[in-house]
Amino acid sequence: MKKRVFTISLSLILLAVFILNNFMGQRITIAGSWNNLVIFTFDSLLPPDWSVAQSEECGFFCSDAWLGMWETLKIAFVATVFGFIFAILISVFAASNLSPLWVSLIARAVLAAMRTIPSIIWATIFLVAIGLGPVAGIMAMTFYTIGYLGKLQYEAIEGMETAPLEAAKAMGMRRHEAAIFVAVPEVANNLLSQLIFMFEYNVRHGTVLGLVGAGGIGLTISNSLNSLQYDRVTALLIVIFVVVLIIEGISMVARSFVTEEGDVKRPSWFTIFHSPNQAVRIHHFDDESE
Amino acid sequence: MTMMPLLQMTNLSIGYDKTLVSNVNLEVGRGEVIAVLGPSGLGKTTLLRTIAGLVTPLEGEVILNVNRRGGLGYIPQRLGLVRHTSVWTNVGLGAMVSGLNRLQREEIIAESIIKMGLEDKIKEPVRRLSGGQQRRVATARTLAQSPPLILADEFLGELDDDNVELVMASVLELVKKGSTLIMVEHHEERAIEFADRIWRIVDGKLVEE
User: Fold this and answer.
1) How far apart are alpha carbons A72 and A244 in whole angstroms?
2) Which of A152, A274, A280, B171 is most deeply buried (CB count within 10 A of its CB)?
3) Does A240 fall in a domain?
4) A282 assigned to some structural domain
5) Min CA distance, A193 vs chain B (Å)?
6) Is the pLDDT of residue A287 over 50?
7) Number of domains comprising chain A
8) Which residues of chain A neighbour B70 with C-beta distances below 8 Å?
9) Residue A135 pLDDT greater than 70, yes or no
10) What is the domain range of residue A203?
């Protein structure tokens, strides 16, 4: 078994090296040199121009950086919520343990099509249909979220233990009942974890959509790029990085409440501010006092 | 008029890639307790799964004279509970297919939970319960369903003697009302104690003792 894993791993690595080697053969040198990169970095990108994160009226919170970031957060939030709702509906049809094969194949094809079209193309489509602005961004991100999250969700449903669905089937539960009352609750932890991940992904991805005019901080970056103000772009990227780190922290805490190992009750509002270990102690204390 | 048997197996052969048990011809009426015995891997679970409609027979047929919805209660070896939801919700799944109205459903859920001695665990997610408590939840789900035919795969497994009494007393109450229990059992003494009929798998045949 170990030998087989080793052989497969080695073959994959060799194949990757072979493909890379072919690409290297096609390399085209664009008058590029290391010196150009150093000059670009230190003359254009650095130091960051923090004026983009300040405003005369009310400091950071009226600045282009924050207003753009806030819009990106709102776009990502709305798109993640709507994307999640539609994704779960389609993933129930796509899961082969809940639906007949032909339904499952059609639903999978729909999800694959949504994923195949990159979000930037979705954004372009909706910009043409709706016009410039955050609504086009929301639509583009929602469609991409459905395709991406739907796949994760149906894989989670298919990976669940078979016994609960078998019991439900034997009892005569209808397909939609088994989906709503058995499958989805059984994989709820996975779904929640994926939802949080997708929100974080959408926040990061919001910058790309903004580049084509679909609102958010990406639009601010796009404006700076067009006017060759790369030091402003650096400042904006640092703002995004900090926000993503904050979301990562929040999602770590949130996810810790839905892991098997954490095994805590559904978090009450105040345990959100405690570490998982502390939360477990608080809940156990509650149990003992009951 | 002769009463239709609850379950009829005619020339039934079961298995997956290869035949495990062949040529089963048996009938089961209402209000019976049947224990299926035999060493592991010979097809006891496959027999229950075939009766439950989860496995297609290799040959022959299974005729069930029960409603498709709610007519059959199945407690798989791994119990089939929704582990992240509460005891109440799990037991409620049984009541959902029972055809009762909402008030009746709530009553029967509460009654079943109390019968299984789980009233202090109503809101607890099932994954936080011990193996024995989970078995009682699975039994409570079947009690709330009150089906004419109950298929139970080693459902007394991790229970101590007191809890075996508790669980069997409630299930036998259903049997008295006309339900039939087919249980796969490892403990021969338990099977003899509770069952009216014993089926044993010997050399690929289902033999009634």
Assistant:
1) 12
2) B171
3) no
4) no
5) 14
6) no
7) 1
8) 171-172
9) yes
10) 61-227
Interface residues on B facing A, Cβ-Cβ cutoff 8 A? 49, 52-54, 67-85, 89, 93-94, 96-97, 125, 127-128, 145, 147, 151
User: What residues in chain B have per-residue pLDDT under 70?
Assistant: 1-2
- Given a contact cutoff of 8 angstroms between Cβ atoms, the answer to whether B139 and B163 are in contact is no
Sheet of B197-202, strand order = B72-75, B149-153, B180-184, B33-37, B197-202, B205-208
List, for residues B92-144, the tens digit of each pLDDT value. 999 999 989 999 999 999 999 999 999 999 999 998 899 999 999 999 999 99
How far is Cα A211 from Cα A239, in angstroms, rounded to an integer? Answer: 16
For the CA atoms of chain A, what is the radius of gyration? 24
pLDDT at residue A267 in the model: 46
- Residues A227-238 have a mean pLDDT of 85
Q: Residue A27's pLDDT is what?
A: 60
Is A82 contained in some domain? Answer: yes
CA gyration radius for chain B? 17
- Please give the ipTM for the structure prediction: 0.92
3-state helix, strand, coil in chain A (%, to 5): 80, 0, 20
Boundaries of every domain in chain B: 1-66+150-209, 83-147
Residue A247 Cα to chain centre, angstroms:
11
Mean pLDDT, range A147-154, rounded to an integer = 92
C-alpha B65/C-alpha A161 separation (Å) is 29
Count of C-beta atoms within a 10 Å radius of residue B33 = 20
User: What tens digit of pLDDT does each residue of A95-108 get?
Assistant: 999 999 999 999 99
Write down the CATH number for the domain with range B1-66+150-209. Answer: 3.40.50.300
Query: Which tops the pLDDT comparison, B185 or A66?
Result: B185
Alpha helices by DSSP H, chain B: 44-51, 87-96, 102-115, 131-145, 161-176, 188-194
Q: Do A172 and B69 touch (CB under 8 A)?
A: yes
Q: Tell me the shortest Cα–Cα distance from B202 to chain A, in angstroms.
A: 27
* Nearest chain A residue (CA) to B95: A171
Number of CB atoms found within 10 A of residue A227's CB: 9
Domain-embedded: residue A284: no
